[in-house]
Amino acid sequence: xxxxxxxxAACLIGAVSQAQLIDDFGVAGLGEYTQTRVxxxxxxxxxxxxxxxxxxxxxxxxxxxxxxxxVLLLRNDFSLAxxxxxxxxxxxxxxxxxxxxxxxxxxxxxxxxxVNPTPTDTRLGFNWAAVYVRPSQxxxxxxxxxxxxAVTGTGILNVDETLVGQLFIDRDSATSFTLGYYDTSxxxxxxxxxxxxxxxxxxxxxxxxxxxxxxTLGDLDNLRIVAIPEPAATALAGVGMLTLIGRLRxxx
Length: 252
Prior knowledge:
Layout: H1 2-16, E1 19-23, E2 34-39, E3 48-51, E4 57-61, E5 69-75, E6 84-90, E7 99-106, E8 128-134, E9 139-146, E10 149-151, E11 157-158, E12 164-171, E13 176-183, E14 188-195, E15 204-211, E16 215-227, H2 231-251
Antiparallel strand pairs: 1-16, 2-5, 3-4, 4-16, 5-15, 6-12, 6-16, 7-8, 7-15, 8-9, 9-10, 9-11, 12-13, 13-14
């Protein structure tokens, strides 16, 4: 009976929200992505790298300079359409590694990167947004870069990194994106909404990392796009699930 009930629940939920898996990192290699350093604090040495050798995505700072380095890892063979959600599973152990790791959407997969000696910061040269875990401060944060203006200090959510189950970015309209996370009990928590004037943000999707000292951040897994369920559809699915389970119990 329990197995039947769970099967019914899965079918009803699946009908409301169907997932398009982009990357489960089951096959080693990140050739679909372009890695771009968008801030290096004047340090020419490349310190940040990404790896999926474990079957999940992690970010590592391997240099000895210990200076901020912000990096995007983006792809444009998938895009985030209106009414859809970019989602990734999060599995962070308790750690104090510095600083951020999470999801990103952008208007391009190949933004201009930093070069030696200048520019040392190209984040304001294109439109993008990110939501990320910051283990060293037990927070989830969201940043946006819109028409040359950076907003990174609002919508800070206090949560232990071990309690973050998923990060998400919802595309609510052509220009509006909601950023936040699901905790390990599947409770949705919103950080903030980023509103652009450009309509091409979401053409590229992927990951953002800000690492500042030797260490590894991760893991992220099962990057996917799902339909944002309509509230009425979600409620109807829940009612239908309870009704069917109740009938089966009476028959049993």
